[in-house]
Amino acid sequence: MVTREAQRDAKRNRGFLLVLSALGVLAGSLLISSEPKGRQWAEEPKAIGTDRLVSIASLPETGGQMCQWEPASATVSLRAALRQERLAASSVPSAAKRAEAAKRKPVRMIRDPYSSYSAVAVDPIRNEVVLADENLLNVLVYDRLENTPPKASMSEPKRIIGGDKSEISFPCGLYVDPKSGDIYTVTGDAYGLLVFSNQAKGNVPPVRKLEAPHGTFGIAVDDGRGELFMTVQHDNVVIVFHKTAQGKDSPIRFLQGNRTKLANPHGLALDLKNERMFVANHGSSHLHHSGPGPASGGWYGLALGKKSWPLDQESAIRGSGKMASSSITVYPRDASGDTPPLQVIQGPKTQMNWPAGLAVSEERGEIYIANDMGDSILVFSTSANGDVAPIRVLKGPKTLIKNPTGVNLDEKNGELWVSNFGNHTATVYRTTASGDTAPLRVIRSAPLDRPTLGISNPHPVAYDSKREELLVPN
Amino acid sequence: MAHPQIAAFARLAQGNIPPTRAIAGQAALLSRSLHDIRYDAINDEILVANGHAQAILVYRGAADGEEAPIRIIQGSKTMLNDPDRLDVDPIHNEIFVPDREGKQILVFPRNGIGDVAPIRVLKGPATQLERAGALVVDPVHNLLVVGLPYSDTGSSPPAGSLLIFQRTDAGNTPPSRIIRGPKTGIIRINQMAVYSPRKVVIAAQPGKIEEMEPDGAFVGVWSLDDNGDVPPRWKLIAGPKSTMKKPRGVALDPKNKTVIIADMRLNAVLTFYFPEIF
Lengths: 474, 278
What we know:
The complex is a heterodimer. By secondary structure, chain A is mainly beta.
């Protein structure tokens, strides 16, 4: 039974819809008739005078059930839409219109104009610190004792290496050769490894390049044996080359296989005293069929002409993917093939949340973890195993640690360096620092109040029409 | 790269404005190389793939912080291997995933959870799905557009293409139309979007993968009725005027008549007013 109140509501709704429809038609006709003769491509209307609030009026209540709103001339609209579609499909805009559109400038751009440090390497011999910038795609060299004054907008680097000739693309790992000062840069989305001379500056090509599988991240070097180690995220690999390898040189060996527990490996560190290799894993992985390597040459033919090469997607076992929690896996230094880890640090007590860069103090028997999403540096004994708590945690507002993705030890000066991807800083502490300890020094690439966007290699984009937001993944 | 995340920025954000929210952290189950993202406006959901873990992740539209997906498609029945890109058809409730290694397109139920098998597979020599890297669905005209990159050892100059299938095509079905050839300017195709009312596809063409700032990169617009060696009807060309260097992602905001473009080399997201295509 329909009540009188419901009938009143329905009548009110019909009236409201009629008014709304009339307004829609009027607005549409106004829009059509007001097409500018000389088109301007500014999105926002031109403001005349200043905005001011004239009045506020509440909309009438529209409670109760509403009927499905059907346009009165649905068939006509459909026909018009189809005609428009046919016209659109068959018409080709004039060359002049196309040329004008091709040169169009963006109305908006979201971009962080400041460096965001993703990795750090100290050169205590030359008293320099090298920082990888994953935002502006550069490598920056500062004096080791640089300390941005609180009131300064930023510190100027001594040298910047970057530009298309440098081929630096999303640098995420760094190593400085203590002897030559050469800067080894791992590029997350390009060639693999780029080596620059100590004095390189500007848009210069690397002195040496080495092909590595796509998706390298961490780097560690055994100078005594002349071996260079890199992690490969995509295919769950630690790949080892001669330190002087270049171009299409083959690796000496690699660690890869279903028993290794490598899972989206990131940071890498060596303990040469105890002959151990430490790897930080984010947790995603898949299995591979065993085999000699990519028969077709692998990702963009990188495996072609190589004596050996890691397995890639070609030999992945379909549907074998897993998502585990973050971990540190520990192997013999010279592990190769499908070698299981000797130790696995993993579990809720560890506090790990996307561990990135790693450093090891052989002297102290400690491993330092840049704990990206925990905004902390976690310190474990190098013998730690299982679900264990860190022996020290460096974390808190005074530390300035925010999304740390790189960590480096300067044992000569007893200092711990952190690259904070989340706040435009590199920060320095005593090696033994813990708790909410302020840094000894700060290198800042932007004024204090400038936010970081965290954008890194934005490949796709989506538009959330409900919230009017741009969705940007890394 | 250092830090996986899905960041949300206000539509009118300009310059160095922080995101309004960001999905990141262990519980979010993301990994690097998020090469596609789709927002399903009807169901208010965000879809991405985790290639390393061979999974499709679905988040609620308002997801924020270290938030887990509300649905995951993953497991041995899925046949997934390195899912890189995807699209969702909220009208017919399907998720489409290109499979480069398998030279196929896998179609899943949109509401699928866990170890679900594809409901359709488009595969076979007649499909020409060689290294099928990107796709987009037009649920109104029932079309599926697949973007192919140039072959590693193939043509010179290198040429990619757009293959247009019927949405429900399965098995060894040839494409209905192929946009390919020197006039197209296509070297490889990354993310695409369709605007059904005008029956057009908008595609990011970032040029050669190995070049830092490639020549000939652009975002192109083709009619979904185009066929053969057809130049794009509209182009936004990378260069000093547009600011773009290596466009790889594209999304549409029809209400405001804008095209949103993600540029890898600029590490930036650009919005262009482009009323002609709406």
